[in-house]
């Protein structure tokens, strides 16, 4: 385990990499920002499947979070202004809205700025996450 948190993203996705580059350039954090393909997932207590489904946060204390919760934890470990944004993102009503928004972005990340066709989730992952209709919780 590291003395700081670790933020894990999909390094095969251009959109995710663009976002990670933004974090490294603009968000003052002590956290390691690393693609899951180059992370020691066993040491972090993560699986490939978890990392394919959402960004991950593993705190210095070993506590984990995924998706917008992971983003909130990363921001909470950053500079003062970003900490406020992280705290807001972790508020229950905001968190409730953040998950559907995160899933929509994940489903459409190949269409986002910086995204490419390679960013599209594999068909198996899309069906596992969103069912055959493409909407969460449906089959």
TrEMBL record:
Domain of life per record: Bacteria
InterPro entries: DCC1-like (IPR007263)
Pfam families cross-referenced by the UniProt entry: DCC1-like
Name of the protein in question: DUF393 domain-containing protein
Organism this protein belongs to: Micromonospora echinofusca
